[in-house]
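retry 2 of 3: previous attempt timed out while embedding S-adenosylmethionine. Reduced batch size to 1 and resubmitted. Inputs unchanged:
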Amino acid sequence: MAQRQYEFSDSDFNYFRKIADRLTGIHLADNKKELVYGRVTRRLRALRLQSFSDYIALLESGDVNELEQFTNMITTNLTSFFREMHHFDFLTQDVVPTLMKNKPRGSRIRIWSAGCSTGEEPYSIAMALRESVPGLSGWDVKILATDLDSEVLAHGAAGVYTVDRVNGIRSVYLDKYFDKGRGPNAGKVRVKEEVRNMITFRRLNLMEDWPMKGPMDVIFCRNVVIYFDKPTQTRLFAKFSNILADDGRLFVGHSEALYKVTDKFELLGKTVYKKAG
Ligand SMILES: C[S@@+](CC[C@H](N)C(=O)[O-])C[C@H]1O[C@@H](n2cnc3c(N)ncnc32)[C@H](O)[C@@H]1O
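retry 2 succeeded.
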């Protein structure tokens, strides 16, 4: 093991595991010790603290800003535009057209990107809908994008990305839905206003009470629950079932099967679920 600048005991690690679980629902396995060391060490340096005990004392003092910084450090925010493209095809070719068939014209269609990270997922939803659902403008379509991590949310709300983030996406999306930066913003793109206006970004901890009443017609919660333990996942899916409309649909990540986790949902297609019963 590499020489460490700061002493990092098992009891320090266990403290961070416990508080991460309490604040975020994220379950840090034994093999995450080095990862936690790396992330928290950066914070120790920034704050010019001498030891992990000093940092633990700061968290224990209940410093709200530091608790937020800590949760931001613990989350894993990996995401990309049109991740798992088949979900966006299914959404635009099946789920939304069916909703439109079953609701009076112009009704509300509510989509929730829960654990939206830096915004690529909700923007992909918005662009896919605009591009592939005829007559969309005659409907009241809104996307709620939430995350616990305040930093990624701010990034998402701004809608500015370096070009390498959008390199792989279909050129029709790039040409129609992004403004290209010039001068000091060269090398960056910004999601166009009409797409940004479809989305509301809000900080929301999935472990806490949710302020919105719903019902949601569609929930995307992808690559979020893999970090939670099973009982936490079970509780969360029960809450998703409560807030989802009876004919609503839930999209999860490719490695997040609900089998043996919840009986509230039935598999409909590749990692797309409907409410059971
Ligand atoms: C790996 S990203 C997934 C992003 C996107 N859904 C995707 O699939 O590309 C997981 C996100 O879940 C968020 N997250 C983790 N725990 C959370 C919680 N308790 N409440 C809300 N968001 C949470 C993290 O901050 C992170 O941005």
